[in-house]
Amino acid sequence: MKFEYLLFNLIVIAGPFAYSFEKTINFRQYWREALFGIFGSLIVYVAWDSAVTNRHWYFNAPYMLDFRLLKLPIEEWLFFITVPYACLFVREVLTLVVKDSGFIRQLEWVRAGMFALLPIGVLVFQSGKEYTGLVLIAFGVIAFLDRQLRTNTLLQTRTYVFLASVIGFTFVFNMYLTARPLLIYAPAYQLDFRVITIPIEDFGYGLTHIALCNIIYEYFKLRSGKA
To answer: Within a 10 A sphere around the Cβ of 126, how many other Cβ atoms?
Structure first.
């Protein structure tokens, strides 16, 4: 069905957008910061997506509209808006139910470990497993930005609850996208290890995408005094 991917995007954002006006959550007060996070991460991940489309993966034409921009269907562009919006909404909901433990310096080793993945990713990329390598590089860059921008999201236990929810969303959403399949992958560029139908790299792609979005979001919340 040509409208299937479009409907997927509308379903993803419908609930979070509607509840953004709920008084307890009041996510709309953070829309400006959310837009910075969404479009800041969109620039990076659209560039990545466009660069590897028709190499690392292919879009299955029967499930989406024919219009393409930078090789990407319009629904893929919407994906980089609807999914981050939904995730940031969930993040704010979690702040209401998960106790804020503040910065835990012991988690610095986690961030340092992520940064150490950057050179490993370069080596893996050069070996031909380009998708795997790019994901590892992305984890390293995320750790670097979190430290340099002083958002320190990776030093908060609440962030890991949030990222655990992102893994859950990735499992549900990517299961749909890969099982139909709306996306078809080239095994040569990845480990070709799958969680049912989902390439293991997709979990890293999703985590780093939302982590980047969250870091930019937090940065602008700090600057506006809303954090």
So the answer is: 10
Domain count for the chain: 1
Q: If you count them, how many residues does the chain have? A: 227
φ, ψ (nearest 5 deg) of residue 223: -65, -30
pLDDT per residue over 85-129, tens digit each? 999 999 999 988 877 666 677 889 999 999 999 999 999 999 999
d(CA 157, CA 102): 8
β-pairing verdict for 183-185 and 57-59:
antiparallel
Q: Is the pTM here over 0.90, yes or no?
A: yes
The CA angle 173-212-222, to the nearest 5 degrees, is: 125
- Containing domain of residue 71, as a range? 4-224
Q: d(Cα 138, Cα 118) in Å, to the nearest integer?
A: 7
